[in-house]
Amino acid sequence: xxxxxxxxxxxxxxxxxxxxxxxxxxxxxEMKSASAEYITASALPVTSVSGDITTNTTWSGVVEIxxxxxxxxGATLTIQPGTFIKAKPNTSNTATGVLVISxxxxxxxxxxxxxxxxxxxxxxxxxxxxxxxxxGDFGGVIILGDAPTNTPSTKTIxxxxxxxxxxxGSNASHNGGTLKYVRIEFAGxxxxxxxxxxxxNGLTLGGVGNGTTLDHIQVSYGKDDSFEFFxxxxxxxxxxxxxxxxxxxxxxxxxxxxxxxxxxLADYNSTHxxxxxxxxxxGIELDNxxxxxxxxxxxxxxxxxxxxxxxxxxxxxxxSAYENGIHIRRSGKLTLxxxxxxxxxxxxxxxGTGSELSSASNFSTIKxxxxxxxxxxxxxxxxxxxxxxTGTTASAWGMSQPFFNDGPWNVSPRNCGNFQGVWxxxxxxxxx
Length: 432
Known about the structure:
The chain is mainly β. It contains 1 helix and 31 strands. The strands form 4 sheets. It has a 25-stranded parallel β-sheet that branches. β13 and β14 (199-200) form a beta hairpin. The N and C termini lie close together (7 Å).
């Protein structure tokens, strides 16, 4: 008989649609069942929402999204700390549990370290100890803005159709609001089939400007990419991508923001995307655009303090299930400062005319391991040879024990975003 381990949070008396504190904060980070906070929330009343939000609205408690909910017409959606958001399940091939902040809307989702805002699987909130969450149980979160992209401003974001879902423009300082101390779990939706090119990610950002705040956000067990940036100038800090099916971080269509302190962490027991029969999951995938053409605005994010961790061993079912730690292609560029990449077949691969690891990078602070190849392509020759390793066992590069599947996990000293704090969650198993 399976059982759920309850802790102090279960004693809280909680009611939906008030300023409630749902998430447990009584214990520090440890590899334990995630059930405690979810079983508490599963007993609460549920508020169901659907359609458009056109006036200022506040969510708290447990909220169920039916289909696609779009914030528009100048409205702001405020989500209180400790709120849980789930999808209403359906059996048709339509996206559900998708929250869209349109160009004309705004979000204020400001959680706290002890009470993050949690978008998650309805199966973790059903009170049934025998159900388990799966990628795709929640649709995803999409923020759209009118910041610059290298595509027309009438382009529709992947996975959706209609003018409410256009993104891009000329307003670099666009402000879509705030996401802070937020977890997005078991999200993603593929409209057609795996790798159809028409997917919804855990967190999708289309033409989002640098007036927007993105800080302490974790995306776990997504069905497609964890984070995808389609153009825009938004900056972000303290991002965690855990156990992504496809790419941990994906950059396209002229994104030029700065990301500070980011972690991509693999769980080789998660699902893995394929291109044909070949592995297609990358720590970072970066394109200028889908056609690989040069444009006046080039995709060129700046990433400071980046840690990409795959599997410890390159054997079948572990490291071999992945592709590249970083894949720069289709005329895209990437600027790196203080980066570690380990546990992928190829560490950094730069491919195609115009693609490069930018000369603005601080090459002496980049360390790369690959099971077969450490680095290849334009710009990578500037990384010192002492910072490049190959071999069937991944390098920990001075970290305590960074590989999730190989014992007590500890990414120190690269724990720049409190990645092992009470706001994060890594173990979703139900304990015997």
